[in-house]
């Protein structure tokens, strides 16, 4: 008699991957919400600086950590993702520092 495959192990692995993907998503969502609160309380420029820090950390994580760990941040190649993260961080920092208050 053939025994059915052990589905418990495959579900467990899938749940681990799903949780790993969600960690980055939830971290980013939390930081975006926090930057909205900071922007409301302290001003828009400080909220944007916090978003720029989030983009910089995301780029550094994507550059240094393995792809399986940064699955929630991965869209293209490692260097292209890092370039986009850091370019966006530089752009919003420049705009926050130079734009007049609205």
How many separate structural domains? 1
Distance between the termini: 74 Å
Number of helices: 3
Structural class: mainly alpha
Give unreliable regions as ranges: 6-11
- Average pLDDT, rounded to a whole number, is 81
Total beta strands? 0
Structural Rg? 19 Å
> Quaternary state, please?
single chain
Order of helices and strands: HHH
Give the overall shape.
flat
Biggest β-sheet description:
none
Question: What fraction strand?
Answer: under 5%
Q: What's the helical proportion of residues?
A: over 70%
Overview of this structure, please?
By secondary structure, the chain is mostly helical. It has one domain (8-98). It has 3 helices and no strands. The chain has helices at residues 7-42, 44-64, 78-98. Helix 2 (44-64) runs antiparallel to helix 3. The N and C termini lie far apart (74 Å). The relative contact order is 0.13.
Question: What is the structure about, briefly put?
Answer:
The chain is built from three helices and no strands.
Main traits of this protein?
mainly alpha
Set down the secondary structure blueprint.
Elements lengths: L6 H36 L1 H21 L13 H21 L4
């Amino acid at each position: 008699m053939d025994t059915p495959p052990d589905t418990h192990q495959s579900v467990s692995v899938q749940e681990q991957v799903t949780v790993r993907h969600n960690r980055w998503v939830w971290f980013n969502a939390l930081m975006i919400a926090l930057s909205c609160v900071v922007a409301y309380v302290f001003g828009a420029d400080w909220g944007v600086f916090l978003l720029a820090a989030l983009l910089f950390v995301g780029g550094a994580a994507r550059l240094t950590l393995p792809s399986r760990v940064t699955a929630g941040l991965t869209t293209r190649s490692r260097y292209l993702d890092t370039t986009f993260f850091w370019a966006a961080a530089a752009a919003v920092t420049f705009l926050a520092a130079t734009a007049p208050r609205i």
